[in-house]
Amino acid sequence: MAEPTPTPAGASPSAAADEGLVITCQCGGVRLRTPNATPLGICHCHCTECRRQSASAFGTSVYWAPTEGFYPLDPALTAPGGPIGTITRPADSGNTMYCYFCRGCGVRLLHAATLPDGSIRPTVSVKGGAIEDPDGVLDWASAKHIFVRSAVIPLSPTWETYDTTIAAGPRHVPTKE
Description:
mainly beta; Metal Binding Protein, Guanine Nucleotide Exchange Factor, Chain A; 2 helices; disordered N terminus
């Protein structure tokens, strides 16, 4: 898979809408930038994989399209000795999931998938906690909750929820009579 160079993050954590938002790890060893400040969507995922990677009750992902300069990543970043490590694993969908993390502090940065035909899935998920959003441009409250069949916390009936993926349709909530 060809991997162009990511857009370098500027010195300021705040970004104009066309410059994107800074993605960084806990130690500051990795600084990337999203292609713009307007994501395709935000999800809080309650699947067991996201709970494990976040060490929390759910994982938050903010989605952008894989665009030149954003994803695929520059091979130098993921090469031995580079700042970003990769874990690959099969997904239930048949896709191969690429999970990128900072080699210095271990913070998960983003996930991307290759479909069974070898093409890149049309979304890259940036881990929510790795995004600097000092101007509050992301609407965290409107995030959809996915894989709620695995949820370990109570879910509000006002949240948009899905038993598995959004593609599978919304969760059926029985009405009380």
